[in-house]
């Protein structure tokens, strides 16, 4: 059982293939697969973004996809964009550093000061959350207390998803199932970083809903800690 902390309610939402892959190969943009989502499912994704106070993705996802992380296709406000980036080395031409929505870059105390200053000059908030690495429980508390973020949506890659689950910070998972199999031993899957030694180390889920959204199956789970 994880220690209780003051934090947002967290939803991981992700598309994935039948074999659990997020991209076609390691280093490929997830946008390649997302183009095959049913239009109704795209609307669902943006509707969900509009319902949340903030959206978080990892810095590697930003490097590969250069996402905007804004609300389109539906009416609604843009969520605060949160990017964990311990070394403050996110590319300075990233779309998330633009003025479309408020952006918070979470860095570690070890981040070079000149990189931190360069990010601040882009007009984003820089939040220190951890010594040499990102302390995710601390980050969640800071987001809750400093930005009044009560609901956080994670569209992370496998590394971010792993750290959030490992620290007991996820409440729900919503999956968009794409009817493809891509294979590949090193192709990124929903959760990375895990090398478990027993079933006791698995993350346990409870299926609470499943439905078709256009041509895509959607499954929703609660996390059992």
List keywords for this structure.
9 strands, Dihydrofolate Reductase, subunit A, alpha/beta, single chain, 225 residues
Structural class determined from secondary elements: alpha/beta
The arrangement of helices and strands along the chain is EHHEHEEHEHEHEEE
The CATH superfamily appears as Dihydrofolate Reductase, subunit A
Give the strand order, joined by hyphens, for the main sheet.
5-4-3-2-6-1-7-9-8
Q: Estimate the mean pLDDT confidence.
A: 95
Question: Whole-Å distance between the termini?
Answer: 6 Å
Label the overall shape: globular
Helical proportion, percent range: 10-25%
User: How many distinct helices?
Assistant: 6
CATH topology: Dihydrofolate Reductase, subunit A
Strand content of the residues, in percent?
15-25%
Unreliable spans: none
Q: Which CATH class?
A: Alpha Beta
Number of strands: 9
| Main pleated sheet | 9 strands, mixed
Q: What count of domains describes the coordinates?
A: 1
Question: Overview of this structure, please?
Answer:
- It is a single chain.
- The protein has a 9-stranded mixed sheet with strand order 5-4-3-2-6-1-7-9-8, with helices on one face.
- The mean pLDDT is 95.
- The radius of gyration is 17 Å and the shape is globular.
- β8 and β9 (216-224) form a beta hairpin.
- The protein is an alpha/beta fold and 225 residues long.
- The protein is built from 6 helices and 9 strands.
SSE layout and pairing:
Layout: E1 9-17, H1 31-34, H2 39-51, E2 54-56, H3 59-65, E3 80-84, E4 103-107, H4 113-121, E5 125-128, H5 136-147, E6 151-154, H6 158-166, E7 172-178, E8 204-213, E9 216-224
Parallel strand pairs: 1-6, 1-7, 2-3, 2-6, 3-4, 4-5
Antiparallel strand pairs: 7-9, 8-9
């Amino acid at each position: 059982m994880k220690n209780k902390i003051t934090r947002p309610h967290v939803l991981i939402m992700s598309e994935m293939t039948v074999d659990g892959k997020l991209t076609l190969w390691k280093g490929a943009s997830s946008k390649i697969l997302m183009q095959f989502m049913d239009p109704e499912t795209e609307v669902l994704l943006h509707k969900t973004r509009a319902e949340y106070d903030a959206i978080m993705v990892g810095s590697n996802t930003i490097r590969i996809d250069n996402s905007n992380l804004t609300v389109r296709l539906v009416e609604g406000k843009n969520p605060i964009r949160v990017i964990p980036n311990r070394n403050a080395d996110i590319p300075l031409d990233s779309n998330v550093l633009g003025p479309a929505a408020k952006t918070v870059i979470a860095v570690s105390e070890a981040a070079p000061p000149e990189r931190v200053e360069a990010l601040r000059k882009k007009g984003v908030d820089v939040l220190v959350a951890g010594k040499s690495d990102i302390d995710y429980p601390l980050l969640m508390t800071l987001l809750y207390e400093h930005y009044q973020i009560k609901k956080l949506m994670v569209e992370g890659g496998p590394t971010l998803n792993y750290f959030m689950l490992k620290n007991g910070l996820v409440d729900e998972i919503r999956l968009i199932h794409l009817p493809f199999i891509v294979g590949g031993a090193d192709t990124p899957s929903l959760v990375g970083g895990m090398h478990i030694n027993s079933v006791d180390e698995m993350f346990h889920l409870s299926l609470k809903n499943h439905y078709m959204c256009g041509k895509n199956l959607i499954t929703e789970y609660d996390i059992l800690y």
